[in-house]
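[step 3/7] fold_predict: job queued, chain A
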Amino acid sequence: MTLALILVVLISGCKKNDYQAAVGVCPLVVSTIPANGAVAVPLNQVVSATFNEKMNAATITSSTFTVIDATKSAGLKAAVVVTGTLTYSGMTSFFTPSSPLSPNTTYTGRMTTAARDLTGNALQADYVWTFTTDLPPTATSDPANNATGVLLNKVIVATFSAPMDSATLKSPATIFTIKQGTTTVPGKFSYTSTTASFTPTSNLAPFTVYTGTITTGAKNKLGTPMAADYVWNFTTIPQLTLSSNPALGGTTSGAGVFAQGSSVTVVATANLGYTFFNWTEGTTVVSTSASYQFAMAGNRTLVANFTPKYLVTVLSVPVLGGTTSGGGSFTSGTTVIVTAVPNAGFTFTNWTEGASVVSTSANYSFSISGNRTLSANYTAVVSFNVTVSSNPLAGGSSTGGGSFVSGASVTVSANANTGYTFTNWTEGVNIVSSSANYTFAITGSRILVANYTLIGGFNVTVSSNPLIGGSTTGGGSFVSGASVTISANANTGYTFTNWTEGANIVSSSANYTFTITASRILVANYTLNGGFNVTVSSNPLIGGSTTGGGSFNSGASVTVSANANTGYTFTNWTEGVNIVSSSANYTFTITANRILVANFASSLPLGPGLVNLGTSGDFTALAMSGISTTGVTSVAGDIGVSPVAATGITGFGLIMDTNGQSSHTPIVSGKVYASDYAPPTPAKMTTAVNDMMTAYTTANGLTTGVINEIYAGNISGQTLPPGLYKWGTGLLISNAGVTLSGGANDTWVFQIAQDLTVNSSAIVTLIGGAQAKNIFWVVAGQALLGPGVDFSGIILSKTLISLNTGAKVTGKLLAQTAVTLNASTVVQP
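[step 4/7] structure written:
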């Protein structure tokens, strides 16, 4: 009877009609990836079905688990089956397509009743679900296709319908190109999530057709390529170039770049001596009007043509001979008068042109028939110069020199300086007068010297050795026989020893009195008493203040003191590399110069402080629209989504816990939560998401001590201390990485108004005890971490957080849209 009862239970538990699953009796598909009805599924998606119990792997075959291309199969008699590889692990069956799925295509997954558990029980009904792959991205451009009048410095922008994988736009270089004919235009590309911008290295050529191409090698972030190449053409703005012939003929205006069809006026203005006669383009005369108006229909190169007038240039020979007037520019046949006016001492002789005399009249009149270069010639009226000087030069002053006419009466005077007596006037080697006032008649130029003899004054110069030894008095200029006293006053720390002159000691008295018989150079000599200097400083400089430095005699008792500022603690006094005292008040005896440093340690944390995450801090990854993964991913801690349901968590192979409040997966060390799980999970997730948004708003609103726009939004290769940093743009960390230097309790907050872009293999290095849990990246755009990145800190993102292949984050991922992981690792801080 017992055996019969067991058979009844087994049969009734697994019958096809009025089916009710019994765990351990009937197998059941509890979840799939992608979920039923999922859209925007990546083309490289591994399709899986998870059971409520372990299955007989031998019954999971290509006939029991199939994926059908429903779009291609529509209207066909036979279904189009996707080929691929089946594997089975744990309680999940995995189907890996042989080639990527087709974009914008609906697929049907089916697990048939031939699938059986380990006791032979069959799936009671075929489990069928559908999903649709991602749409191919499309592109638009600025300039648009067939645009005309495009500026020569135009930045060319392609905008995509979905976030793109910028790596597919960069390499190979043929994916996104701008060409002129078959020649690729050189330039620089930059990217956001949905745009690619091209800035040419130099301006585009005017009125030229360019072709832009983005090939199907361009893929979105889900790996979906464009369905077809996007190709567009545009034409640049025409350019107008102007010049004049001859070049000095005049000026032209109106050149530049203009829209096709615009009305343009060019103007030619003649310079003095030139007349405009026409505009030419190549060999064609296009206008005889100085103001020529036309509509732009392409590049134009116009030349304004001028005819010259005639120039008259007048010169004077010698140049100081006089002034000339009458030069300038004249038209042919004009009557011109040139005039020569002599200076005093010169007489006009004639006008010459080249080697020919053309007129002897100071007013020369002629008719212009060509360019003329005329010289007014002068002869000098006889005049003589008198030059006076003194010997020796310091002897005195002399007056009476100048320029004089022949026969003029001239007096030169000599005034002696103190200590000098006038002796005579000489000219060459001859004495011409012994009178200080010498009067003579001019018959020629004269060079006279007033001669002096020294009265007998002597100088006394005093100095000290060493120079800082003391002060000296008594130097100066004295007459022979004067009594002179010089004095030496010692400074503190020095003692006077003697007066020396050259190598001789002349006195050991600080007050040395002598009679002047010659100039003297005396030195007061000192010896050092034994004074030594004590210098004190603090490290770090803001650690505190120090006292006790100065200059001291040998054997003096000295105390140096260190006073700490708030937030710092005194540690020790060091001299060089040696610690000499751990007492803030250090007393010692002076035996030599000392250089002491008071060392301090910080006792307060630096930075803006921790951001309160609330209950969102309970999660390693928290998102509002979904968390997805591909490849081998590892997450330490809990993850969760809200308000999206559990269908928003893809790629994890979730297994529901028996209480229905959470699920688990081998690649997440903690629990998985979603808004549609059993209470109290929905309320828990709502609170966590609200706390996450509050934390973002609070962190983004911090202002105290903010550091704005440091390194212009590119902190690659830099070392940043604790602080609040803000950028009105995106923030870039290249593969040079960034270093954060601070203590274990110091904090960093980075406010980023656009995207956070971390290039492949970049490392965020922490030194000095800095911890990832104290670092907050507040991102208004997307947080995009490239392959192989090693990142530290808590990301609070207004939109997407994306980790590419092999990326590692020590921190938390808190996104107000989605978190995407590709073979990534997330470690709790």
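[step 5/7] annotate
The mean pLDDT is 89.
The longest strand covers residues 300-308.
exit 0
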